[in-house]
Write a structure and sequence with these properties.
Length: 313
């Protein structure tokens, strides 16, 4: 059975776009719950400036209070050298560095050019030596909401520069849900041909309803690692009204139904998903949390039995 590995990003990518602060103890309880669901990784929080992302201002407290369950890797987003120092103090096992493959999106999100970002992140990679594994998330790999098309060759060029620095993994992000399945499949082939030794993860948003189709197209091309967010939370400040990351429970449910081994206790995950609207104060896009699993059957209405009796000779 093919194993698919999930990185749960709800408390980072999911929460960073939520308008109302989720209290630290609620974040910790959610992460502890997720830790017992079978995730390979959990992206706990982000060591960015609290002015840029107030929701994650309690990064240290959260990292200090969560249970570290063996077998789960706890990863954090690190935007710069200052963030790396904070991540180091919190004993994060993986640092997730981020920059955009689109110049305009990088300027909008990180307020610097891609070259400036790369120079800073190169220092962070050096800082991580001997302390943490390094993953680099490349944003807008399938299109930029401001520039439009991002050439596959541009994605490969930035991936190559980080591979040369010796990072362990790369996450190829469809930040605003612009990827379509053929594009995802082509990207999967190109990356695996060039970077066979790297841990390659795909990160889709379901902004235009193509998220699960993109997952399947990538799985068919041999991608076995995905980021996903409980309830389908997440979004991007530059695509107003856009829906979030692919939903963890919907994606895992689909892959399990198809016979893939996800390592996830789906029933347990659904219990957390059903509590999420209470935590964030609004409905969430998750479908399986509302409809139930395909094997959660409903009793037939009583008249069905009566009809059946009438039919027997
Ligand atoms: N942790 C805490 N504070 C930080 C920080 C970090 N990692 N990096 C910068 N800061 C603080 C600085 O101390 C400074 O504070 P001050 O105004 O009180 O002096 C302020 O943030 C600005 O610092 P500066 O060095 O000028 O950074 P910047 O304005 O270029 O911001 C980022 C750089 C990346 C830290 C910031 O733009 C950011 O966090 N953006 C959000 C990116 C993000 O996470 N996006 C979503 C994920 S893709
Ligand atoms: Zn994202």
């Amino acid at each position: 059975m093919t194993r698919i590995y999930f990185n749960e990003v709800v408390t980072r990518d999911g929460f960073q776009n939520e308008p109302h602060f989720v209290p630290t103890e609620d974040k910790v309880a959610l992460i502890d719950g997720l830790s017992h669901c079978g995730f390979a990784k959990i992206e706990v929080t982000s060591f960015t400036s609290s002015k840029a992302i107030p929701m994650l201002k309690d990064a240290e407290a959260v990292m200090g209070q969560i249970e570290r369950v063996p077998g789960v890797e706890y990863t954090v987003l690190v935007p710069n050298v200052r963030g790396a120092e904070r991540a180091l103090a919190c004993r994060a096992e993986e640092w997730n560095l981020v920059m955009s493959t689109s110049e305009t999106h990088n300027l909008a999100n990180l307020r610097m050019s891609r070259e400036q970002s790369f120079a800073g992140l190169r220092e962070v990679v050096a800082q991580a030596q001997g302390h943490a594994a390094v993953n680099v998330s490349l944003s807008t790999c399938f299109g930029c909401p401001m520039e439009g098309e991002v050439a596959e060759s541009e994605v490969l060029r930035w991936a190559g520069r980080f591979a040369d620095l010796g990072v362990r993994g790369l996450t190829i992000c469809d930040t605003t849900g612009m990827a379509h399945p053929r594009q995802a499949a082509a990207m999967a082939r190109a990356l695996q041909t060039r970077f066979a030794e790297l841990q390659i993860t795909f990160h889709f948003h379901n902004t235009r309803g193509m998220g699960l189709a993109n997952v399947l197209a990538s799985v068919d091309e041999g991608i076995h690692r995905f980021d996903a967010s409980l309830g389908g939370l997440g979004g991007c400040p530059y695509a107003p009204g856009a829906s979030g990351n692919i939903c963890s429970e919907d994606t895992i449910h689909m892959l399990q139904a198809m016979g893939f081994d996800t390592g996830i206790d789906l029933q347990r995950l659904l219990t957390l998903a059903r509590h999420l609207p209470q935590l964030v104060g609004h409905e969430v896009p998750s479908q399986v949390a509302k409809a139930g699993r395909i094997n959660d059957l409903h009793p037939a209405p009583p008249y069905v039995e009566a009809l059946r009796q009438g039919l027997t000779p």
